[in-house]
Amino acid sequence: MKSLLLAHSKSPGKLILSGEHSTVYGKNSVATTVDLYTECEIFAINDGTIRLQFCNLDYEKTWPLELLKNCPKLISDIDAFRFNGEESLMKINQLWNELQSEPTNISHSCLAFLFLYLSIGDLSERKSIKIVVKSNLPNGAGLGSSSAFIVSMAQALFTASQVSIDKKEFNRWCWEMDKIFHGKPSGVDNSICTYGGAILFRNGQLVEQIDHKDLPELKVILVNTQVPRNTKNMVEQCRQRLTIFTDIVWSTLKDQSGGNLNQLSTLFEMNQHLLNCLNVGHEKIDEIVAIAKRHDLSAKLTGAGGGGVVMIYLNNDTKRESLLKQLHSNGFITYQVKLGVCGVHTVVN
């Protein structure tokens, strides 16, 4: 017998067009969505468990339903939702201890689920469910995979629990959960995954949004360097350089923050040079930038840097095939994507 589907949500990934590191210091960043997605489905089951399945990681975690039902609810009302590091972890100490032997990406993902599950709705009314998460976003590549996971999970849990929340408060909840993955996230990743389209972000606030229906078509090829990177480490490298060359880096951050879609090729080229000055480049990124330049195209890293993904602005479509051939022959993985799609949404099956 087929399980009853309670909720199905879908969140896009993200690209930072400009301001990867300036956003950490309260300056402008421009972000847009990309049509690579994380999906979360919640099914009603009847075996006395809560099952969390990560299809891409070939991993499933099971908790007895009664164990989670008997946990204290983590918040008194919807406005009180916070993640305060060790203080918050102590509230679910038994559950947290069980996860500490797991790989970091799995333990963090399970923690985010637990904090959301134990905060939404009335725990006493909970029944057995199976949560299935799948994604075509590469992990740790600067495309917002952790925020897409959090946002899609939160949307599905609120839907399945039949609890209403306005978008601004929903976005704040997702930012709180991103602290599990990134320590002190800027808020730009969860915001673009929530709202979609393109956003101008500054000092922890969404300043302006362009709806996905109003964006010009931007053709971009994403190239995965296949070099793992760590956002926290890259931010710290930038911060260390800031303490040595304060005036220079502040000027770099200011210059890096602007943007004009009509001059996107020039912006990409300038932005990449500035990011290299911040010590967040990598030889593989330089190789991709050089290949793009030989095809008269501009490229830049997206995200924290040190590896991850490079985006190439395809303002000349006639170069596409020769560009892809060269990238593939050099061993790179590419994605031909659409930018500026809608944010998280419920899928109607």
From TrEMBL:
SUPFAM superfamilies for the chain: GHMP Kinase, C-terminal domain, Ribosomal protein S5 domain 2-like
GO BP of this protein: isopentenyl diphosphate biosynthetic process, mevalonate pathway; sterol biosynthetic process
Entry keyword set: ATP-binding, Cytoplasm, Kinase, Lipid biosynthesis, Lipid metabolism, Magnesium, Nucleotide-binding, Steroid biosynthesis, Steroid metabolism, Sterol biosynthesis, Sterol metabolism, Transferase
Subcellular localization: Cytoplasm
Xref: Pfam families: GHMP_kinases_C, GHMP_kinases_N
InterPro entries found in the cross-reference section: GHMP_kinase_C_dom (IPR013750), GHMP_kinase_C_sf (IPR036554), GHMP_kinase_N_dom (IPR006204), GHMP_knse_ATP-bd_CS (IPR006203), Mev_gal_kin (IPR006205), Ribosomal_Su5_D2-typ_SF (IPR020568), Ribsml_uS5_D2-typ_fold_subgr (IPR014721)
Residue ranges annotated for the GHMP kinase C-terminal domain, each copy included: 257-330
Pathways per UniProt: Isoprenoid biosynthesis; isopentenyl diphosphate biosynthesis via mevalonate pathway; isopentenyl diphosphate from (R)-mevalonate: step 1/3
A GO term for molecular function: mevalonate kinase activity
Start and end residues of each GHMP kinase N-terminal domain: 124-197
Designated name of the protein: Mevalonate kinase
